[in-house]
Design a protein that fits this description.
Length: 170
């Protein structure tokens, strides 16, 4: 388990790529579970449980669906397991880093200063998009700029659709 943590940490630090993740359906399922749980915990700080659960399902379906479509269009469908494991494994780590920040922001008194946790959350979001771009660049064999464009497109599409699901206040 420590080896997997180190692998996903190395991917987050842009030292390794999705090609370094073992192709294993069991690992993909484990990463999806961890990603779903970490995402749910973060979303529960800002949304009611049913809304947070639907947003997590949306995220996972959108991530898997767009990834598969992108891999087919770039003629690399066999990379799906490794790439999805890399995205969800690193996403789980990012979620664990975001959780204390989300709790910090949520626990502030009305009118309290949330500048520091909000800035840290923004930095984490930018880092997360950079990691997604890094993974997609390797998986799709494309430039980092196209990977970044895909990562931003996925992120903004998810935010738009998630806002339609429900309010962001518990």
């Amino acid at each position: 388990m420590l080896a997997l943590f180190n692998l996903f940490l190395d991917i987050c630090l842009l030292r390794k790529g999705p090609q370094d993740v073992p192709a294993s359906m069991a690992l993909t399922k484990l990463c999806l579970l961890a990603y779903g749980l970490s995402s749910l915990l973060v979303l529960l700080t800002q949304a009611p449980a049913p809304v947070a659960f639907l947003q997590v399902l949306l995220d996972m379906m959108l991530l898997g669906g767009l990834l598969y479509l992108g891999l087919i269009l770039h003629r690399h469908p066999k990379r799906f397991e490794q790439t999805l494991s890399a995205l969800t494994g690193t996403g789980s780590l990012m979620g664990l880093l975001a959780l204390p920040l989300a709790i910090w922001i949520d626990r502030q008194q009305p009118g309290g200063d949330i500048a520091l946790p909000s800035t840290l959350m923004f930095v984490l979001m930018v880092w997360s998009i950079a990691v997604i771009a890094h993974i997609l660049r390797h998986a799709l064999e494309t430039s980092i700029w196209l990977g970044a464009l895909y990562a931003l497109g996925y992120t903004f599409l998810y935010w738009t659709l998630a806002d339609w699901i429900g309010p962001q206040t518990p």
